[in-house]
Amino acid sequence: MDGVSLPSTMVRQMWKHNLLKEFDLIRIAGMTHRMVAFDIEFPGVVFSPVNIDKDNVGATKIIQLRLALCDDKGSLPNFGTKYQYAWEFNFRDFDVYNDIQNMESIELLKSQGINFDKNLKEGIDSADFAALMLKSGLLGNHFAFAWVTCHGAYDVAHLMKLLIQQPLPYNLMGFMNLVQCLLVKRLFDLKHMTKFCDGLYGGLQMGANRLWVERVAGKSHQASSDT
To answer: Quick one: angle between helices 172-183 and 153-164, nearest 10?
Structure first.
């Protein structure tokens, strides 16, 4: 809106050395910010046809996850500062030198600034993240957080695999039961929702452009920005 100065957005980078401290802030933010947007970066689709989602998720490892907690006025938490904040988790699970990957996806992520060597050295172990996330109050909570993604079939599947630290359920019913248990039946996919909105189509960036929504942090194809 004209005349309104929005606070700058800072992405809080999460590594193994500051994971505990940052989760304390996430728990505080979750008391008032009940909408959770998330985005995940992974090594791309490695099996064809592309509709073999379960096999692709099972074969690949997470690279980045980003969370942005929002209140009912559309604001991110600021913790009493002049900035508003979101979080980017950098994982050590994926080894760019040895693990299965889609080379085009990896080159794209490199071009957007992801440092795979730093992830290996300083990144978060996914088991540590899962343990803290399950205690964060964001999952299976009677306050019913709303979770938001965009074109998020792979994002949701990777999140479920990450949280349970084991292979995904064999069938769709088992998978959906898992999603409903952890996300409390409040999951919204913007890509699906745009099908019912005249004039909105395409990917995340195109939809944002048509709604005059600007990026406030990071670059495209980084979890830190897409959320």
So the answer is: 80
